[in-house]
Specification:
Layout (H helix, E strand, L loop, with lengths): L1 H17 L2 H26 L15 H31 L6 H30 L4 H7 L4 H29 L3 H30 L5 H12 L6 E11 L2 E10 L5 H18 L3 E10 L6
Parallel strand pairs: 2-3
Antiparallel strand pairs: 1-2
Length: 293
């Protein structure tokens, strides 16, 4: 966040010297990124609050809410402004003044963003496993890393678009190219914002555990001696690191109440051992009736 703020200041200075719309769009882009990272930090902090009577399952999903707000901010502040500024610049076709300022700041920013993007990739690889990048962004239950990944990718591509627009405007002497570069930045931000909105909306509405995790939970349940089988099961992420598990389990009709209670306790322990994020577990016993053929 601090790096993005510093880059934003540098871009604004370059804009004042060059009057380049691409530099202005990139300045707003960096300001939006800094604000988004502040929102993610705020969401993470608020999600740690203790549960209350009004919110008995806690505030873990606040992280999803703030990630969704990030998508809205990126679209309204970054994309809409850049698209408007690009169209305006195309109509005016003003010259780029003192382009060396733009080149210097853009090259510095590209180098800084490469290091930032590299860090985001390294952090994501720690939890991505064997998933493809598309699958990781689509199915990650923790919203921060996919958001930062897409933001960094967008920032890097946006800088390349800005460099392209300014370079072509200087070579041709036509400010049209500066406007085209700005328009490309706006469209890029709109695409990223829409992808983020779709993915975080799904998390905000409530997503269940991944198929692999559900298989682990089912195996843990059916491994308990008193559990004959799992009749049905539902899971729900209360937050990235907190999973609710509700299941109806079949028990033998000869089991006593003490046997059933002991079996439920053991099943809960087995679930938590297999899936540590399963922190809220509700198990309902039922008689084991053979399914009707």
């Amino acid at each position: 966040m601090a790096a993005n703020l510093a880059i934003a200041v540098a871009k604004f200075v370059a804009f004042l010297f060059t009057t380049s719309s691409s530099m202005l769009a990139e300045s707003i882009h960096s300001v939006a990124d800094s604000g988004n990272q502040a929102l993610l930090l705020l969401g993470g902090k608020r999600a740690q609050r203790a549960r209350t009577k009004e919110h008995p399952f806690g505030y873990g999903r606040e992280r999803y809410f703030y990630a969704f707000v990030v998508a809205v901010v990126l679209f309204t502040v970054g994309a809409v402004f850049s698209i408007y500024e690009g169209i305006h610049k195309i109509e005016l076709r003003g010259d780029v003044e003192s382009p060396q300022w733009a080149f210097g700041v853009l090259i510095f920013a590209i180098i800084a963003e490469i290091f930032s993007f590299r860090t985001a990739i390294k952090e994501s690889n720690l939890v991505r496993g064997n998933q493809s990048w598309v699958s990781f962004i689509r199915h990650s239950k923790s919203p921060e890393l996919p958001v930062v990944l897409l933001e960094d990718l967008g920032a890097l591509l946006g800088l390349i678009f800005a460099l392209f627009g300014v370079t072509m405007a200087v070579i041709t002497g036509d400010g049209l190219w500066d406007g085209i570069g700005t328009l490309m930045i706006g469209i890029l931000l709109a695409v990223i914002a829409i992808v983020l909105a779709i993915e975080t909306k799904s998390l905000l509405l409530g997503e269940g555990a991944s198929p692999d995790v559900e298989t682990q939970i089912r195996s843990a349940l059916e491994g308990a001696p008193e559990v004959s089988r799992v009749i049905h099961m539902r899971t729900l992420h209360l937050g990235p690191e907190e999973l609710l598990v509700a299941a109806k389990i079949a028990v033998d009709h000869d089991d006593t109440a003490a046997d059933v209670a002991r079996g439920i306790d053991e099943a809960e322990q087995r679930i938590r051992a297999a899936v540590p994020i399963a922190r809220v577990i509700y198990l309902e016993p039922d008689l084991d009736r053979a399914p009707v053929k």
